[in-house]
Design goal:
Blueprint (H helix, E strand, L loop, with lengths): L5 E6 L3 H10 L4 E2 L2 E8 L2 H9 L12 E7 L7 H12 L6 E6 L7 H8 L3 E4 L5 H32 L5 H8 L14 E5 L3 E4 L3 H12 L5 E2 L5 E4 L5 E5 L8 E5 L7 H20 L9 H7 L3
Parallel strand pairs: 1-3, 1-4, 4-5, 5-6
Antiparallel strand pairs: 2-3, 7-8, 7-12, 9-10, 10-11, 11-12
Helix pairs in contact: 2-3, 5-8
Length: about 300
């Protein structure tokens, strides 16, 4: 739905440590998606990776979910300087940082945790294969929860502040993903009243995905008939019925990631918000600006 893999950064100046870590994590998956291991042998290499391979246009904090960082590399404080750079220079507060060191006396644990906002501190002797597995699983879950909550919060704020008319609301919501279908992009879209489609894909594709998911039992259902359905492949349907306070609305998305229940709840609530805003917004769709009219022309 959003990602195809989870990016993990290993920073250590010992080639054997990098090799063993990559081997230990090669079969790990989270929410049904594999991890992808990136390595760096110095603070400078790590910063370069974070600014290129691990950056993403429109994602302020990049796409590195978890980083394991050695303390002593090109100097005795290189790893801590890297943590400081990530948090304070890059303003990245979401990547889960784990310090692992062969010289624990160089960086006292409590001070490091307090000063650098890290998620864990371990000696290299403690960092077993099982420990790596546990930290990657928990770290990715925390990172993605932060990322998704921020995405939904920004989307909701943008919609609420532009919901005076339906034209404004459609303009604020914009496209789902990058403009135009892409080979590696999942089908997704937002639909109001089964007539106004915000998607890079044809209405028939969205309806087919919706109708398939409707055959399954919902994971979330309210007395009003609103529901969310998620299948075993990661496809999701939010279906909001027309009521005195909500417009008919659905959001549908393909995916190969199994969303955790708390984030499905967030997705469902966001659908309720958008359906409520559409119901309240003044109808002025005969005045659609060219950009929005272009989006809706296939409907």
């Amino acid at each position: 739905m959003f990602f195809h893999e989870w990016n993990i950064l290993i920073v250590d100046d010992e080639p054997d440590v990098l090799s063993v870590t990559k081997l230990a994590l090669k079969d790990v998956s989270v929410f049904g998606l594999p991890v992808k291991i990136h390595t760096a042998r110095s603070k400078a290499e790590a910063i370069a990776a974070l600014n290129t391979t691990l950056s993403l246009l429109g994602a302020a904090e990049g796409i590195c979910a978890v980083a394991f960082i050695d303390v002593v590399m090109e100097n005795d404080q290189a790893g801590l300087e890297l943590c400081d750079h990530i948090r304070n220079q890059m303003a990245n507060y979401s990547t889960q940082l784990y310090i692992r060191t062969g010289q624990p006396g160089v960086a006292p644990e409590r001070k490091v945790i307090d000063d650098y906002d890290i998620s864990g501190y371990f000696t290299k002797m403690e960092m077993t294969e099982q420990k790596l597995y546990t930290l990657v699983k928990s770290g990715v879950r925390q990172w993605f929860s932060n990322w998704y909550a921020r995405l939904i919060a920004e989307s909701t704020y943008n919609a609420v502040t532009h919901a005076f008319t339906r034209t404004e609301l459609l303009s604020a919501l914009g496209f789902i993903g990058e403009p135009g279908p892409h080979e590696d992009e999942f089908v997704s879209g937002i639909v109001f009243e089964d007539a106004y489609f915000l998607s890079d894909y044809q209405p028939a594709q969205l309806r087919a995905l919706r109708d398939g998911l409707k055959q399954q039992s919902p994971a979330i259902e309210t007395p009003e008939g609103h529901s969310l359905t998620a299948d075993a492949r990661g496809n999701v349907l939010v279906n909001i019925r027309e009521t005195p306070t909500t417009a008919a609305y659905y959001y549908v998305a393909e995916g190969d990631m199994l969303m955790p229940r708390p984030l499905l709840d967030v997705t469902f609530r966001n659908g309720l918000v958008l359906a409520t805003l559409w119901k309240r917004a003044a109808s002025d769709l005969d005045q659609l600006p060219p950009a929005v009219a272009q989006m809706l022309k296939r409907a």
